[in-house]
Design goal:
It is globular and about 50 Å long. By secondary structure, it is α/β, with parallel strands linked by helices. The N terminus is likely disordered. The chain has 6 helices and 8 strands, in the order αβαβαβαβαββββα. The chain starts with a helix and ends with a helix. A hairpin with a 5-residue loop joins strand 7 and strand 8.
Amino acid sequence: MTTTETDGSHTAQRIGTIVAAACLLVVAVGVAAMLIWPRTVQTGETLSDTDLRGKPFAVVLGFTRCPEVCPTTLWEMSEAFKSLGSHADRLRMLFISVDPTRDTPEFLARYLQSFDRHITGLTGTEAEIAAVAKEYRIYYQKVPTDDGDYTMTHTASIFLMDAEGQFTGTISYGESMTMRLQKLRRLIGATA
């Protein structure tokens, strides 16, 4: 085994540990996190905790300039919504940007046109984003690039919340569509 393979394995283990810890801690969060959502939806309107009550939802943090994980996750969820058919209307997905500097409501609106209509983009102040990430124990960080720009690194899991805002599970990045649909159907109370 080379040093690179060892480093990669160690990094994967650390990320796995972070995700597992986040999942365990999110169970205790529930409705409390809904009180501090970033308020600005891609349409420029505001979102309140009461807007989320009564309907299960999925939450993922990401950013529009993400080269792989975010567009793949949004595409896979778009395909899952298609597979759910009319049951898809029982679920809402929130894509919360961890890059509020570049991901304005207008930019999010254009970006999300490529994905399913059940996916709502949210942005807010850096403090609002940090508060949601803290409540959900989601890791994210701005990372400088060699060209003087930056990218973001972040937790890649989708958090599943019931109609009361209680954590019910996650969908991991790269999880099979079969398992994804099974979890979503269980969340919304639909059969195959």
